[in-house]
Design a protein that fits this description.
Number of strands: 2
Strand order of the largest sheet: 1-2
Order of helices and strands: HHHHHHHHHHHHHHHHEEHHHHHH
Strand content: under 5%
Oligomer: single chain
Amino acid sequence: MHFAGYGLHRLTLRKPRANAAPMLDLRPVGYVVGLLVAVLGVAMILPMLVDIAEGRGHWRVFAESALLTILTGSLIALACANGVREGLTIQQTFLLTTGVWLMLPLFGAAPFMLGATGSGFTDAVFEAMSGLTTTGSTVLSGLEELPKGLLLWRGILQWLGGVGIIVVAMVFLPELKVGGMQIFKSEGFDTFGKILPRAGQIASQISVIYLWLTLACVMSYLAVGMSVFDATVHALTTIATGGFANYDASFGAFTGAAEYVASLFMILAALPFVRYVQLLNGNVVALHRDPQVRGFVVTLLVLVAVTFVMLTQVFSQDMERSFREALFNITSIISGTGYASVDYMQWGSFAVALFFFVGLIGGCAGSTACSIKIFRYQLLFASIRAQLRRIRSPHGIFTPRYDGRPVGPDVLSSVMSFFMFFIVTLGLIAVALSLTGLDFITSVSGAGAALANIGPGLGPIIGPAGNFESLNETAKWILIVAMLIGRLELMAVYVILTVKFWRA
């Protein structure tokens, strides 16, 4: 779902003219959304070809879905093409970032409704939204019996969503000053007025890196014994940190070396892709100097060490298995991938609490990883340190710093607002889920899993050994909305719900 080559080079982000009439032109938004819907339809051809090769007759589902999606997307783009020259205002950019993740799951759901799963509208949208937001929660069971084309489609949805969110996080959200993301404008993306032409260049470089990482992951899975199909689908969902698997047992269908391979590529996918671009351009210390990367790696190592010590008791002093399961499952949860190799609900109450809070950490900004993100915690702690120093020395001047640079009050305010909105939203979603009849553990962990785009929740229903199939439709729609809000960093969605946004 990268934005390069789909018409964005024709758009510019512009400030509204002074004293301009308060009129919102949706044509530029519709043009881009229409093009991306059509591209999604083209992507359906791949699982169609797989189904043809499998010989089960399921290919007609993707043929019909592709035709419907391509035609609808093309008609929307053609109808809105005459408004492209006028560019994008801040309003339109907010609508674009939300509209893409709102519309694509609706069309991505078609193969689930028409196909072998026979899913209703709610389940189909839930699966598609979970895929494109790289959440990884599923309402499907009996995955081993599904047509290969449908399993591949789930992987494609996550892969497209992964590269799409990187572009949004690196190009759009910094300009929109969402959740403290504006701090990354200093990384060379401070291109107000040129953001979308710049987006094409950035998206092209990222897409090449994303593709090569995916191919490397495929080859690595093949090397440790996976079949070609399993290696391909799991590589798509690993690099996207999505977590959709081809088996009801998730990654429990594989053991040993495959878990180490998955852990490596989940870590690589959770690092900022802009650093890979800089590495390719000759900056060999780009990753090492990034405070996000250092913070993420240190946090990961500490959590793996704590879990390893705990598991040496669970697995009767089996050091290798204890380390492997600690590394794999902690990496999966902190990156928001959501694979599970075992039912870690059986590891005791400490493990359950640990995994819940690990899921609220997340990876680096500008990666496919989900949740709150490491940089926000770093800014939070920097602000706390500065405040403590002010208390000790009231007449001193102490400014929070990030990567050696002072952090402005607008960034800190945005980060603090994000934390507040995240906590309040998490609580409201949990309460809403409990009102549908779900128990406390399912409600709270389900809210966290959806809002942080982690995948599995906790407890016997939606935990690593279960799925979301048995939830009622109201609960599923609450989770669908939560996945969308969480994937777009909360405030990118909330701002369009305000009256002043539509009056601007």
